[in-house]
Design brief:
InterPro entries: PPR_At4g14850-like_plant, PPR_rpt, TPR-like_helical_dom_sf
Number of helices: 13
GO molecular function, one term: RNA binding
Helix content: over 70%
Keywords: Repeat
Protein name: Pentatricopeptide repeat-containing protein
Organism: Thlaspi arvense (Field penny-cress)
Order of helices and strands: HHHHHHHHHHHHH
Largest sheet: none
Strand content: under 5%
Distance between the termini: 46 Å
Shape: elongated
Radius of gyration: 20 Å
């Protein structure tokens, strides 16, 4: 019943708060799926203050709930809060996963603090996530946003299995940062390789 109510209340912040109160008073707060749905809905409507309050009241939230909050901060343009949340997570010895760092990298790009980017990259290496496309691609984009072309290019070249998403992201970032010659160079490399390009590559 509550799941159905959540679906129909997706754009009504006050109703979402009432549902949260109902979840707490009915003892349903032990159901992580309900809390996750509720957290998602609060993020969609942009009520990050209440989403954070609800998160802080949870007992040892699992990593996917941390990632959900990271996602919310990034999508609602709260990079500082996202970076501070990451610091809190590390202080509590909560182990991140491969979905954590793309959001952290995006937050650092929004915040514009390169040293934080270097630190998060070191953590990625520590946890063994650097070879994962979803993580490496976002780190490449982060370095491009900071104008660190050599670091971005080195990391991109180090990726073992570059899919079309990674190629498109790198080429588009080169164009956006006015490195058209490099974008063209990698476009030719893509065409000469085994990965088939699409309309997004051409538009980039």
């Amino acid at each position: 019943m509550l799941s159905k109510l959540l679906r129909t209340s997706s754009s009504k912040p006050e109703q979402l708060k009432k549902i949260h109160a109902l979840v707490l008073t009915s003892g349903l707060s032990v159901k992580k799926s309900l809390l996750t749905q509720l957290l998602d809905k609060l993020i969609v409507v942009g009520n990050m203050c209440y989403a954070r309050q609800m998160f802080d009241e949870m007992h040892k939230p699992r990593i996917f709930l941390w990632n959900t909050l990271f996602k919310g901060y990034v999508e609602n343009q709260f990079p500082f809060e996202s970076v501070m949340l990451y610091k809190k997570m590390r202080s509590l010895d909560v182990r991140p996963d491969e979905f954590t760092y793309p959001f952290v990298a995006k937050a650092i790009s929004q915040l514009g603090v390169l040293p934080c980017g270097f630190t998060s990259h070191a953590h990625v290496v520590k946890y063994g996530f650097e070879s994962l496309g979803i993580v490496a691609t976002e780190l490449v984009m982060m370095y491009m946003n900071f104008g660190e072309l050599s670091s971005a290019e080195f990391l991109f070249e180090s990726m073992q299995d570059k899919d079309l998403v990674a190629w498109n992201a790198f080429i588009a970032a080169c164009v956006q940062t006015r490195n058209s010659a490099i974008a063209l160079e990698y476009y030719h490399k893509l065409c000469a390789g085994d990965v088939r390009f699409d309309s997004f590559t051409v538009l980039g």
